Amino acid sequence: MTRKQLIQSIIFIGIFLLAIVPVSYIVRTNGDVKDRFSGFYAEKDDTIDIIMIGSSPVFPYYAAPMLWGETGIAAYPLSSNVQRPAAMKYLVKEAEKTQSPSLYIFEMRMYTMGDAGLSENMAYTRGVTDNLKYSGNRVETIQALVPESEDRLSYYIDLFKYHTNWKMFAFPSEWANWRYEKENELKGFQFKDGVGPTARPEAGGASGELAIPPEQEVVLRDLLQFLQENELQALFIVSPYGESMEDQQMYNYMGKIVEEAGYRFLNMNNYYDEIGIVFEEDFADYASHTNAVGAEKCTAFLEKYLLENYHFTDKRGNSSYASWDRAYDLWLVKNKEAGDIIAEHIANEDYAVIEE
Predict the structure, then answer these.
(1) N or C: which end of the chain has fewer CB within 10 A?
(2) pTM of the predicted model, to two decimals?
(3) Would you tell me the crossing angle of helices 88-96 and 214-229 to the nearest 10 degrees?
(4) Are 336 and 330 a contacting pair, CB within 8 Å?
(5) pLDDT tens, 55-105?
(6) What is the CA radius of gyration of the chain?
(7) Residue 327: CB partners within 8 Å, gap ≥ 6?
(8) What would you measure as the largest C-alpha separation in the chain, in angstroms?
(9) CA 62, 127, 87, 201 torsion-angle sign
(10) Helix axis angle, 292-309 relative to 64-71, nearest 10°?
């Protein structure tokens, strides 16, 4: 090979590698999780006050636009469906690349589940790994979540998995993801307007402790140590839902671990009356996730707790946060629409159908 041919080959390989990354970002399957993560990357550096990490109890429960509009606190959810607890530390590392939040909030529902059942479904892992930008931290996340016995290559280069997903190029909205930075109009919040009634759980507020799965306790203690070593402030919460007595006692157990490490633990299942949550009306799917009415109540309760226990600067009126003002205006409109739909569902006893 001549010198000229070598140079041409190097240039070709370089262009090819540079093209792989944006193409990979575009062909990743579209949806609310992709929009949420690319929306996070689109936020201006060092502008987010709170980053919320956890599974699906995060993004439909807590309306970041509402919190902003009422307090001037900018909060953003880095959450995915059935998010494995082992991913939390790496999501903090990812967030710290561009943000310096005053507080991290971790939703703890998934810590009651053994990791074996979670790791068997690759979708629970890919919800995180396939929505991170390519980086060294992404590699570390894959190594932490994917056993060596599995094919890690398709995780490292997820284009191998999505190489048939060329239909994404037909959507102009997906072209905006070429850098994986696309503004999320509602700052990661997801509206739910269904109604799935259920009875109020009797376990809320109960005492007693039950150990969490051993592998999750290891993950929790590792996360706490990481936060302490990096002097990061954190709040650990459990969102209200149709919990069992075993769940409640596991929260009591993990709450003790968290508080011994010097952090606050807020189990909202101990505060149904204070939240004003109505299990017959405020859930979209039979006490698993709140609808828009329930979300407004949970956001208001968390907002009050944050203002009473932490200090934040009200950033409303700052031109750098114009997108947050737009998000609040949009939330006001959509929240009214969702509230009307929910009221109609209740009046007609038109309840959610859960797909098998």
Answers:
(1) C
(2) 0.94
(3) 20
(4) no
(5) 999 999 999 999 999 999 999 999 999 999 999 999 999 999 999 999 999
(6) 21
(7) 64, 65, 68, 185, 186, 187
(8) 79
(9) positive
(10) 50
